Known about the structure:
The protein is mainly α.
Amino acid sequence: MNTLTITPASTMQTQMLQDMTQMRAVADAPVLPAAHANMGESTPSAATPSFSHIMSASLHRVDGYEHTAQVRQNAIDMGKSDDLAGAMIASQQASLSFSALVQVRNKVASGINDLMSMSI
């Protein structure tokens, strides 16, 4: 039987913690005034990854979890695999990672709304 490998929950948690640590480092970095910002710079610094890069990587990782869960579920449905526990774990992993991503999105949207409602 052909079985796919799935990342253990502890590895997923470690990766998510590393991503959140990177996001916190980017958020805590000092903000330069507009006059001092280098507008011609199109590539992000290697020392501090950009928020969009981190979010893009997270989106791709969540998509990978969703795809793995779908492949495992299809294998169970077609009778090609009998690893029901692995399929359920993959499904829960995909669900949890998606929920975490939605929570981050909601926090970002809330922050943007707060900025938009500030008076100058």
